[in-house]
Design a protein that fits this description.
elongated; RecX_HTH_3rd; Regulatory protein RecX; mainly alpha; RecX_HTH_2nd; single chain
């Protein structure tokens, strides 16, 4: 079959020159001739000439159709078997689906063990400065006994001999005073909580105050004032009308309340029965 002459164009080829097939653009967009002449031109002898390796053309670059660009969840322009072309069928969505289908192996990173740091040893002066700051913070929050403050210093790793020196100095300037603390504690707990002497004595012991110091502070509460406090507690509870429905139940509840506050059972039963009769009458039972 004879060769087809290529029309000259902007490439500078002379009229009638034969062009090898590999030099013709794949998309036909060229000024070398009408694309309709390609079938005839492709059968020319020159078209069969293989291109030199350095000029061999690569595959044509194709632009993605609408909706097939990566990261766009549009509908694919092509439909294959099985209903292809649904939303998210191309681009990043397809790759993300493939990634999710493959389980990710857990990453392991070997950590080099850290060498333990040697504890920093403070000087006595540094420990004393640290201890003073601790004591001032504790006393600013609320009054505390010497035993409570010493426990806090030891918890903060202040040496015991330095803690003793600090507490003695604070006692000299009357920032730590167990006697004043005990007296204030007794008054406060009797007035705000209505506690009996036995309950307050137990609390003082927990704070490191006992013996003569505790007994001296508890002298502020005598038998008469203790019973008066208990009676006030019971009368406040008896203001509720429901307390007069069932005497046995009400008495049991009120005696339990006084027992938890440190009152003896005999005192509690006597005060509760008397107060209940005065409030609801002795014949109001059941």
């Amino acid at each position: 079959m004879g060769t087809t002459k290529n029309q000259g164009g902007s490439s500078g080829s002379p009229q009638g020159a034969e062009r090898p097939l590999w030099s013709f653009p794949a998309d036909g967009n060229s000024d070398w001739g009408d694309p309709t002449q390609i079938p005839v031109w492709a059968h020319s002898q020159a078209a069969a000439v293989a291109p030199p390796p350095e000029r061999a053309p690569g595959p044509p670059e194709t632009k993605p159709a609408f909706g097939e660009r990566a990261g766009y969840a549009g509908r694919s322009s092509s439909r294959g078997a099985g209903g292809a072309g649904a939303w998210g069928s191309g681009g990043r969505s397809a790759r993300a689906g493939a990634k999710r289908s493959t389980p990710k192996a857990p990453r392991t990173r070997e950590r080099t063990p850290r060498e333990p740091k040697e504890p920093v040893e403070l000087t006595d002066e540094q420990y004393a400065s640290k201890g003073r700051s601790i004591l001032l913070r504790q006393l600013t929050a609320s009054a505390k006994s010497r035993a409570q403050l010493k426990t806090k210093l030891l918890e903060k790793e202040i040496p015991e001999h330095i803690a003793e020196e600090l507490l003695e100095r604070f006692e000299e300037i009357e920032l730590v005073d167990d006697e004043a603390f005990a007296e204030s504690w007794v008054r406060s707990r009797a007035r705000s909580r209505g506690l009996a002497r036995s309950a307050i004595k137990r609390e003082l012991r927990e704070k490191g105050i006992e013996g003569e110091l505790a007994e001296s502070a508890l002298e502020q509460i005598d038998d008469e004032s203790e019973e008066e406090t208990a009676r006030d507690l019971v009368e406040r509870k008896l203001r509720a009308p429901s307390m007069g429905v069932d005497r046995e139940k009400s008495v049991r509840r009120l005696v339990g309340m006084l027992a938890r506050k440190g009152y003896s059972p005999s005192v509690a039963f006597r005060i509760v029965n008397t107060a209940w009769d005065e409030r609801f009458g002795p014949d109001a039972e059941q």
